[in-house]
Structure formats: structure tokens, C-alpha cells
Amino acid sequence: MTVLKHLGMTAIAGFVCLAALTSTSAGQPETVGDFLLRIAHVKHLSADNAAMAEQALRDSGHAIPQLALDQVLLEKDVVAISKALGLNLSTRTPQDRFTRAEIERFVTVFGDHLTGKARVGAAVDTLGAPADDVRIRVRRAPKAVLADPS
User: Fold this and answer.
1) pTM score over 0.70
2) pLDDT exceeding 90 applies to what percent of the chain?
3) Are 107 and 38 within 8 A, CB to CB?
4) What percentage of the chain reaches a pLDDT higher than 70?
5) What's the rounded Cα separation, in Å, for the pair 35 and 101?
6) What is the residue-averaged pLDDT of the chain?
7) In terms of Cα–Cα distance, which of 44, 60, 142, 150 is closest to 105?
8) Which residues pair with 90 in a beta bridge?
9) Any idea what the Cα angle at residue 77 is, between residues 80 and 146, rounded to 5°?
């Protein structure tokens, strides 16, 4: 019984530490600038900060919408920026924040499309997410898209 009690307390301590780490990293919301910088890096454009990323994307021919680089990144911003990059996306929850994990999932799913390596008509992977978790959808393309696994 003592061993089980000790294991239980260790598990609780582990969950508390994990929760603290998660809340610390989740405390700082992602910004439009963070997203543009990540996209610029995926496209192999030279940019050390958000302003340079925005300019590099514009210089490469993308009509990036005028958004404050320090504003919290929302799904509607991702949709607007994506359209400028040639992805026709939509969202059912435009006011929801877009997290770091969602940015990484975005570049995983759409990276080949952003770099021009995707085959014409290539399907977009949902990364195994249940259909009811899909929040941003590709329009006029195969069903699928960006899902939040949580």
C-alpha cells in the first residue's frame, strides 16, 4: 500500500510539473509576426524578425495583408495570410487564437504547398484528426486540413 501511495504522489507531482510547464509556454500567445516568420523560414526566405519576414514575403510576390505584427494570431489572420500565399482556406472559428502547435501543424500540412513542391491536386493530410476537430478547412480541394488534436 505504501508503494502505491508513493507512486500516486509521484504521478501527481509529475502532472503538477507538466501543468506548470504547459501554462508557462502557453502564457505567451503567438503573434501575426511569429506566423509570418515561420512561413518565411519554410519558404527559405532570409528573415531574422517579423518585419523582415513580412517584407521578404512581399518581395517574393505575395500580397500579405496589412496586419499588426505584434497582434495575437487568430484563425481569421491565418486564413487571410494563407490566401495571399495561394491557399484557399476557411474557418468556422475566426476569433480563436492560433497556437504554436497549430502553427507547426500548419507548416507540416501545407509546407510542400508553400514551397511549390506539392504535386498538382495533391491531397492534404488531416494528420489523423477526427473530423469534428477540424477547425480550418481547405476550400475547393480534398476535404481536410488543420486540426487541433486536443
Assistant:
1) no
2) 49
3) yes
4) 60
5) 11
6) 74
7) 150
8) 137
9) 85
